[in-house]
Amino acid sequence: MLWMVRAFPGKEDRKDTFLEKNIIAVHWGIGDLTGCNTKEDIARVVDQANLKPRDASLKIGLLNRFVNQMKIGDYCIVPYEDGFYSAVINSDYYFDPNSKKFEHQRKVEWLFGGESFNREELPKQLQLSIKTQLGLANISKNESDFVKYANEKQGIDVEDEGLENGSVAAELDLMVVDALNILKEEMNSDDPHRRLQAATAIMELSISTNK
User: Fold this and answer.
1) Quick check: helix, strand or coil at residue 1?
2) What are phi and psi of 176, to 5 degrees?
3) Which residues are CB-neighbours of 163 under 8 A, at least 6 positions away?
4) Model pLDDT for residues 23-74, shown as the tens digit of each residue
5) What 3-state class would DSSP assign to 171?
6) Are 89 and 73 in contact (CB under 8 A)?
7) How far apart, in whole angstroms, are the C-alpha atoms of residue 183 and residue 44?
8) Is residue 153 over pLDDT 80?
9) DSSP-assigned states of every residue in 4-58
10) Does pLDDT of 118 surpass 60?
């Protein structure tokens, strides 16, 4: 998946904070959403803010994307002025009460050492996708364009099988993350047999990784 997140939660410029703390964040005046695993859970919290129906509906949808639809391993683009930063999401949602007006956060790993690039370098459709005025948007329809761009930046030959191999590698990375999340869920199962199978798979993975 590919996401666009703006660096202005609470209408304040948080670009430097994003880069220094390795985070992306949103605000929208809503409290802690820890444990809100569904859109309905988030709606119950938003309802407490007594917003107008249209405003409430918009915030429920956006917060649900940030809390529940974003996944570890997803790509993220942060537009800023005429440029943009890119990252890989590497944490689940968490709430930081000490971060005023950008409390809803996720950890990220900035690509290219946190270097900014000009938006005009991006494929045209991707440029158009990040022009949305929303603070958060799912732009996954342009994920393949972004992967191709990232591969080119890393010097991978995209004119032949380089692109294919790079894309496959990216897909494999996402699949590994999904598999680890499944194993994590299995470790919390009430079925001791399923927990044992998950533990065995994790041990085998740990052994092979450390060889």
Assistant:
1) coil
2) -60, -45
3) 148, 151, 156, 157
4) 999 999 999 999 999 999 999 999 999 889 989 999 999 999 999 999 999 9
5) helix
6) yes
7) 30
8) yes
9) EE-S-GGGS--HHHHHHHTEEEE-TT----TT--SHHHHHHHHHTT---HHHHHH
10) yes
